[in-house]
Amino acid sequence: MSYSPATVQHRLRHWLLNALTFGLCYFTANMLAQEQGVVRHAALAFEAGVPFLQWMIVPYLSSGLFFCVTFFLVSSQDQLRLLSQRLLLATIIAAFIFVLYPLQFSWPRPAISSAWCAYLYDFLAQVDKPYNQLPSLHVAYCLLFWSALRQHVRSVTLHIALTAWLLLTAVSTLFTYQHHLLDVLGGGLLGLFCLVFITPKRTEPHVAFYYLIFASMFFIIGVIAARSWLALYLACSLLLVSLAYYRNDAHFLHKNQGQYPWWIWLLYAPYLLGYQLTWLAVVWRERHKPVIIKLTEQLWVGRRLSSREAKQLPQDCSIIDLANELSETPTLRKHAYKHFPLLDLTKPGKPVSNEILLYMRQEIDSGKTVYLHCAMGYSRCILLAKLYMSQGTNSKS
User: Fold this and answer.
1) How far, in Å, are 24, 27, 108, 137, 357 from residue 31 at the CA level?
2) What is the span of the domain harbouring residue 118?
3) How much is the pTM?
4) What is the predicted pLDDT for the residue at 271?
């Protein structure tokens, strides 16, 4: 999977997530600093002599172009994941620093003599304010863009040109009077941290990371900016989900006989309701498709069924529920029912896989039809069914 090519859908999804995260967090931090009337800065004494070079606005604004095109220039899914997660991490860390310790650029920009430069600086003034200083996201992004693109540039000349331009883009933050030297150094350290922290060749989605990102967004925008108790609840709930995925704790929802205790609903309602809504959307989208796939006479797979759909199952059918995040349909609980909690989007370990396969074998050998299902019927049940059938093939050979 690490070397699977990235599709347009993958690229758009990662770009949209990054654009949304940057847009909401960055501009929220800017707005808060402006409302607070922040005047402190991180300028060093000698920086008063740094010249203003108005033409540097061109490389400075080119960062926005890199933000868009880099997602479509990397080749594999792993390279796309690296770029996306590193940018997300840089954005979230910087946004937390911006809202906790806001700074302002310390002196006004001189008059612009060039008409086209004046137009570009006016545009910059409309979309950005002189806050969000330390660390410089511009500099951090440049380092991350360079890391993502350098391996795709075969020509030595183009490699030098790419490096020189991104270096110029980073340095332009000083000569356009957007950042001070400490901001630039802070941005470089932030970029290096993201490069080291997010590692290559991960073979499955880093689910804990994404829940942490969303929890952070709710905290920055909803808690710090809007002072919302609901946002605090959402952030804490998503943070607990992130922690469960980080620990690979498939039992964190304490699902018993297909249902959750009341206190689990209290802690994880956003997570559970989100999956319930997703399941309803899948049911509607695939309403004209068969809901059950009969792999063999005794092994059927699919998604969680509605009560009406469950009537298609044999009376003596054995239900194996792999969905950790959806309560089981009451009709299915009336069958011989067994729940094996598996985390979504995460490959199950060998011990639990063997336990499930053994139970499947026992039920099928006893003459029962097994309905093996996860939440949406896309991954977990298909994976276990393939493992079961490959075992059968190997035993015959």
Assistant:
1) 11, 6, 19, 17, 55
2) 8-204
3) 0.89
4) 96
